[in-house]
């Protein structure tokens, strides 16, 4: 065998009575080409079956919507309802808020409508006395007199005469005193014969 296959080109080769112009013409194919043609036919037949299965609705009912698509549409409708409810609530809150602001503004306008408009600016005015620091009158007062080291005229050397009054100023000072503290802890000796205490007893340090 040379591995070739002869195939008829028409139905006349299968023994049918009716013949065609190419009924007696044969085509010679190799074994490999024959196998490839058979497998190609099976492949395209299988693909056709898959396409037909995908095109057919689920359940075999024409026009039926798949379950997943119906669930998605129901979920979308529920979300749209929730969105509309939330938007309506936001609009209601905005109307209430703006209504309160407008009412408050109208009340303020009515209150200050008849009041005269002054030219005075806010805050402390120029030339007005300041508050200053409060005098600590409860603190003890320590007087300090300051005199000139040399009460003489620097040009001619004549002495300066005393003038009535003084120029005073008060300064609050916080005095920190540093000192040494000597702590003496008394010692005692035992005078009894029992041994409940040591021979020399020292007073313990104070707590705190």
From TrEMBL:
Region (Disordered): 104-140
Coiled coil stretches, renumbered: 69-103
Stretches with biased composition (Basic and acidic residues): 104-113
Top-level taxon: Bacteria
Record key words, sorted: Coiled coil
Organism: Candidatus Methylophosphatis roskildensis
UniProt name for this protein: Transposase
Lineage: Bacteria, Pseudomonadati, Pseudomonadota, Betaproteobacteria, Nitrosomonadales
């Amino acid at each position: 065998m040379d591995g070739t296959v002869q195939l008829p080109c028409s139905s006349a080769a299968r023994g049918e009575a009716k013949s065609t112009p190419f009924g007696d013409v044969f085509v010679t194919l190799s074994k490999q080409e024959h196998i490839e043609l058979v497998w190609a036919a099976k492949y395209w037949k299988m693909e056709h079956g898959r396409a037909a299965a995908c095109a057919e609705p689920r359940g075999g009912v024409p026009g039926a919507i798949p379950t997943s698509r119906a669930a998605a549409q129901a979920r979308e409708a529920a979300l749209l309802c929730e969105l509309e409810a939330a938007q309506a609530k936001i609009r209601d809150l905005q109307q209430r808020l703006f209504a309160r602001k407008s009412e408050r503004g109208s009340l303020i306008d009515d209150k200050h409508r008849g009041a005269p408009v002054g030219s005075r600016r806010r805050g402390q005015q120029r030339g007005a006395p300041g508050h200053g620091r409060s005098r600590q009158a409860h603190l003890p007062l320590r007087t300090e007199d300051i005199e000139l080291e040399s009460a003489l005229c620097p040009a001619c050397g004549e002495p300066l005469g005393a003038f009535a009054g003084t120029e005073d100023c008060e300064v609050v000072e916080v005095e920190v005193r540093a000192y040494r503290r000597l702590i003496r802890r008394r010692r005692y000796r035992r005078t009894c014969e029992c041994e409940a205490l040591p021979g020399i007893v020292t007073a313990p340090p104070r707590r705190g």
